[in-house]
Amino acid sequence: VDDLDVKPTDPNKILAGNLGDDPAYMEQTLAKLYASFIISGQKDDDADITSSDDGFFITMRALWNLQTITTDEGICAWGDVGISDLNTQNWSAQNPFLTAVYQRLSLSVTYANDFLNVTAGSTEPNIIQYRAEARYLRAFAYYWLMDLFANPPFTTEEDGVGKYFPEQIQRADLFKFIVDELKAIEPDLGEPGFNYPQADKGSCWMLLAKTYLNAEVYTGTAQWDECKTYCDKVIASPAYSLAANYRQNFSADNDRGHGNNEMIFAFAEDGINTQGNGGITFIIQSSSDGTYIDAATLHDLPDNPNWNGNRARKNLMNILVDTLTVYGNNPVPATDATFAQCPDGRVFLHQKRSINIPTPSSSGDFGIGVYKFTARNYDGSRAENYSPTFASTDFPVFRLADAYLMRAEALYNTSGATAAVVADINMIRERAYGDDSGNISVSDVDADFILDERAREFYYEGQRRTDLVRFGKFTGGDYLWQWKGGTFDGTSTSSHFDIFPIPGDEISANPNIKQNDGY
Amino acid sequence: QEKVVTGLVTDANDGMGIPGVSVVVKGTTVGTTTDIDGNYTLSVDDNATIIYSFVGYRSQEIVVGSQSQINVILSIETENLSEIVVIGYGTVKKEDKTGSVTSVSSKDFNKGNITSPQDLLVGKSAGVVITSAGGAPGSGSTIRIRGGSSFNASNDPLIIVDGMPIESVGNNVSGSSNALSFINPNDIETFTVLKDASSTAIYGSRASNGVIIITTKKGVKGSPLKVNYTGSISVASAIDYVDVYSGDQLRKIAVDHPVLYDPLNYNKLGTENTDWQKEIFRTAISHDHNLAFSGSKKNVPYRISLGYTDQTGILENTDMQRYTGSLNLNPTFLNDDLKVNMNAKFMMTNNNFGDDGAIGSAISMDPTQPIYDTNAPEFGGYYQWQKYGAGLGTPNPVEQAKEVNNKSDVYRVVANLKLNYTLPFLRDMQANLNVATDYTESDGQNNRPITSPSTIVSSWGKLSDYTAKNKNNLLDFYLNYKKEFNEDNKLDLTGGYSWQHFERESTDYTRSIEDADHPLQVDKNTASETENYLVSFFGRMNYALKNKYLLTGTFRYDGSSRFSEDNRWGFFPSAAFAWKMHEESFLKDVDAVSDLKIRLGWGITGQQDISDNDYPYQPQYISSEQGYYYPINGQFTSTLRPNTYDPDIKWEETTTQNIGLDFGFLNNRINGSVDYYFRETKNLLNNVTIPSGSNFSNRLYTNVGSLENKGFEVSLNFVAISTPDMSLNIGMNYTHNDNKLTKLLLTDDPNYIGVPEGSGMTGVTQITRVGEEAHSFFVNKQIYDSNGKPIEGLYEDIAGKGGKISGDNANKYIYHSPTPTDIFGLSARFNYKQFDMSTSLRANIGNYVLNQVAAGASYDQIQQIGYWKNMPTNLSKTNFVKRQFTSDYFVENASFLKMDNISAGYTFNKFAGKDINARVSFTVQNVFTITNYSGLDPEVGEKDDRFGVDNNFYPRPRTFTLGVNLTF
């Protein structure tokens, strides 16, 4: 009968009580908190959540979809469930993408809570720093839950693990929790750039700045000064400088280890060690088609290439390509397939079979191709830890350019178009044009310009929906793009789509959670 | 007065002498057996009664009197009430059984090229549904008894071979496709199926899904050496192919739809007319040989058998070779007080699984392309889309099928030693000890050459190697006390202890192939090991009053290492009552009624089969493989993930009630039984959606929900003709089962949509919802035009909210389920002199299938990502431009009638003038299927965790088998 007391004998399985046996276990447990955002699980067919497809529903990939193909930046040709609803702003609480993002972000919170419980009371300096990183990642997950779903379930290390019903938190209360947490952990985090891609003080400042940037959306009260305060800290840090060339941020060697000091916080990807179809590999392959954009030749990814799903709508092209200046207000000539005449060095677009997309589910051969991210090194050479299947390009979350543009927006909102605003914007534009030929002046700056400049700088980086919501242009009729609301020229949509619904799975599973308005 | 009696025992069927018949004086151990010609000589007393018995024949008792020559004709037993039926930890006379138990013996088994034991039983027993996974050599089957009592936990019955519970069918060792394949079907004597809780509860926590007890053949005491050879040769071929477009047709479709296809891709169309399905399937020839020696050497009855099977699959590069050996010794010692039964079975199988993915590829592959491409030495000379810029293009099916090296070797030994000892000081008490071991080892690889197009997991070709070891050790000890106090009171008590230990180990190694141009990409090495224990106490009481009223009570107290101390032990009782009405005075003299018995049973059984986790109550951290690392402190490190756990997890509990009637008329020429059952499972082990934030995933495997099964079973056997020259036996069975989920969540949300099933690509098409059958189809309601043609993308707005209808769950409804409502089985055996014939038919009614092969057909898919693709020709009926996976149009009624096999044989006595009996037979399997289902085969079973979805499986071939059976 004593035989019934068994312990796992498998070396790959460690009981909770044995986590203290080897100091390396702490690094491995912390590594999981990071990995939970960018890879599916522990091995093939062992994803952290159960879903209909492991690769599709990795946090950063599903999040990228919610932030991109719901806007003018992207539209996906695939027939997979839920995609067409995202393309046309017509999603329901059953949408698998928003369900996955919600469940995975909540899971990242739970992993962090567990880590904080396991390490509670430790006085080891490295553990104190790891705990601050865990709290950072929890705040990061909560930030996205707040941005996308407004009122998620709320748990901390005080809550146990088992079968119970977490309580729902309101958006403004969560906002307060996030900023308080980030301020509390700031001293314990590493110095800027100390150990990329781990979270450090710079990552903390950027998340604070981003949270304050959108404070009005989250709480009803703008906090532009607070946003500027944290942008100032980032810009003042000697650890950060703009990459000489824009494309360095989107190449296999875009990490700080390869000297790119523009990168503040990113999720690491690696062809050998950190693989998956959840991050940049997905962005590259889903945007390649073999005909107009060939992943093998352009990105050195010959295996499993050219998924031909995502491309931008022509409205993004209109923002990125100043056709009046470049083509004299003539239609874009077919001969300039890659808009090579455009002086802005940020344009990595390719005309496809036609600029217009005939129907929302037309094949990916229609529309504006995007090849901004690449699995090659910036100079075109083969990546370190090269894989023909998986990119080693890190997923940029916060880079220095964003601190400049956030500060410009904060300044603009407190004191209007000033020289300081122009100076911050021109920092970015000089890098983009290679000289001051693209510089702007005070008279050029208005709210729309700032929004458009953010699109030019950050397109395909998973920021667009948040930006459009902040400027009041995501839903409604102020700004229409092709197939918004399901019509060719775009149509006004209901403002309740500014927030995603709580997934139906959660409403059924947890009686404490109330659905968001309008769903 | 002692005298010598001689005589001849002959077979009622053919008039030939039967060797080895036991001729024993009643009430003594004095006796003999008949010789090779059926003759015997025995010294007896005038007033003695001689009992003539032989396995498979009805015994006869004859009073000697003044006779000195007694010739006896034995006829094949139709349904013998005094036949012994094996039940858990003991046996019972058929007439005294109180539970729902059926047994099928070797004479009733299915015929043909059968390599898997469970195929012998298909369609033979009411309430038992066996669905083969397809036509692959040696492939396994799912076995469901009364529909299964679990939802996420295993629904496989417990299988006990010669007293040894073996690892369930679902827990296959990697590299082996069939958990039962270690038994040579020729060695099996009987299958006994225990269906209701009153008969299974003695197996407690593993008994919810029924129990199948397999006994193998043994030597007969005192019989001379008998040698038996059976051999067969089979020819198999595909019955039909999926209708797809030819190259010419595809080229025409391409030209006819210029808007759909990018003009840049027209030059990628080829000039061929390749029929890819014909290229990957073949006519397969298999053979099978078995040799068995049985007899008795110095009072040690023995049976030794050797088997060799070489089965070739109809898909290129699939085959199986199996070698089996078995040894059975059952001597008795100490004046029969100590009975010993030793069994050892050995099996070695070489599997070649090939790549059945080629079947789907052959339907999708562009027929305009050639098989070979002289410009593509880097792809081994095969045409591959990847060479022409389409990495996602359909792989060349011929290359896919032929160039894979997906083989495994499996070795298995199952051995046990049973001792039965009658206590000298208490003659009514017997002590039983059973020690057994089951050891399996497998070693396999799944390799692709460097010239194969890449897949996601393997960069340039693939090398993989895996091994597995399963160990299962058992110790049972029980006491049996049997006492007839007087005519009216009989008592049979059993009590015992059981200990079982399972260990499983496996390794898995995958890497890419490297050479000068291709650096190493993938290098993954994992190993796992796990174990669990079961410790049990059990008991049974059988009490018979006046030989009319039978009472049975059993219990089992099970402890499982899978649960925490607080939930570790489960108590599983049962009770049954039977009334032998035909023994009552008002029926006793009615000759027409030979058997009439009412059975009532109740019991609780459990389930503790927790998939992939032997430690579900303990918090565990799992490390990650390379590729799933993350950099910390500048080093890529394996990550540790906390896994979900439920500290309170415990047994699933099923309560079964059964009412049954056994009947026999006209000396049992017509006999059968009717059963009605109601079964409710509580605390279902269920993988359910949990509140976000409460545990370490979005689903938790825990005790939640309940389900019900109720059903009705009838089995009927009758001997239509029985004359010395001719006999016709017919067996029929009917099963009706209703399955319904009654609770699914921790909460009771009346709006809960249920557990959806589907994939990201094809959408949600099935659902398991409270109040409905598990895996019901959940689809949009198609709208048709005036010609009855489905209108693409047009569905009924069920939610009435407007907006998007297609694919939206709110607009879907429940439309039938894959589970048949009614199942019929029919088998018939006919003998005329030396000629015999038999057949088995099956019908399933009310089972629906989602024809995903057809649903995947649309014009836009013919060219999308830089390559061309073929489609089933039903596309010309729908003319859908886009795929409509969620249309109820593709959910089809797949009711069917199948003739599984038909066999004819002829027996030669004294073959070639020698003492050799020979039988030659000819069998056809998969003779015909009558169905309205439009796909290849309406019986799709379970694949990749989907039920009732037709998604290209290995087709069941039609097989012609010529067999010979020699006995001397």
Multimer state: heterodimer
Strand percentage of chain A: 5-15%
The gross shape of chain B turns out to be: globular
SS class of chain A: mainly alpha
CATH architecture designation of the domain at 2-74 in chain B: Sandwich
Give the strand content of chain B: over 45%
Can you give the mean pLDDT of chain A? 94
Greatest interface: A-B, 113 and 102 residues
Fraction of helical residues of chain A: 25-40%
Please provide the count of β strands of chain A: 9
**Secondary-structure-derived class of chain B:** mainly beta
What does this structure look like?
- The complex is a heterodimer of chains A (519) and B (968).
- Chain A has helices spanning 24-38, 59-68, 83-87, 96-118, 125-149, 171-185, 201-213, 215-219, 224-236, 280-286, 295-299, 314-320, 323-327, 400-415, 419-433, 447-458, 464-470, 504-509, and strands spanning 13-15, 75-76, 153-154, 167-168, 263-267, 310-311, 349-351, 368-370, 395-399.
- Chain A is mostly helical and 519 residues long.
- The termini of chain A are far apart.
- By secondary structure, chain B is mostly beta strands.
- Chain B has a domain at 2-74: Immunoglobulin-like (Sandwich), CATH 2.60.40.
- Chain B has a 22-stranded antiparallel beta barrel.
- Chains A and B meet through β1, α1, α4, β3 and α18 of A and β27, β31, β32, β34 and β37 of B.
Topology of this protein?
The complex is a heterodimer of chains A (519) and B (968).
Chain A: E1 13-15, H1 24-38, H2 59-68, E2 75-76, H3 83-87, H4 96-118, H5 125-149, E3 153-154, E4 167-168, H6 171-185, H7 201-213, H8 215-219, H9 224-236, E5 263-267, H10 280-286, H11 295-299, E6 310-311, H12 314-320, H13 323-327, E7 349-351, E8 368-370, E9 395-399, H14 400-415, H15 419-433, H16 447-458, H17 464-470, H18 504-509
Helix pairs in contact in A: 1-4, 1-5, 2-4, 4-5, 5-6, 6-7, 7-9, 7-14, 9-14, 14-15, 14-16
Chain B: E1 2-11, E2 22-25, E3 31-33, E4 39-45, E5 49-53, E6 60-63, E7 72-74, E8 84-87, E9 90-93, E10 101-105, E11 128-132, E12 141-145, E13 158-161, E14 164-166, E15 188-194, H1 197-200, E16 211-216, E17 226-237, H2 247-256, H3 276-280, E18 284-297, E19 300-312, E20 319-329, E21 332-333, E22 338-352, H4 357-364, H5 397-402, E23 405-422, E24 429-447, E25 463-486, E26 489-511, E27 523-545, E28 549-560, E29 569-580, H6 585-588, E30 593-607, E31 620-623, E32 630-632, E33 635-637, E34 640-642, E35 652-665, E36 670-682, E37 685-689, E38 699-703, E39 706-722, E40 726-743, E41 755-759, E42 763-768, E43 776-780, E44 782-784, E45 790-795, E46 812-814, E47 822-832, E48 835-845, E49 848-851, H7 852-855, H8 875-878, E50 891-893, E51 896-908, E52 917-931, E53 942-943, E54 946-947, E55 949-950, E56 958-967
Parallel strand pairs in B: 1-7, 13-16, 49-55
Antiparallel strand pairs in B: 1-4, 2-3, 2-5, 5-6, 8-9, 10-15, 11-12, 13-14, 15-16, 17-18, 17-56, 18-19, 19-20, 20-22, 21-22, 22-23, 23-24, 24-25, 25-26, 26-27, 27-28, 28-29, 29-30, 30-35, 31-34, 32-33, 35-36, 36-39, 37-38, 39-40, 40-47, 41-42, 42-43, 43-46, 44-45, 47-48, 48-51, 49-50, 51-52, 52-56, ...
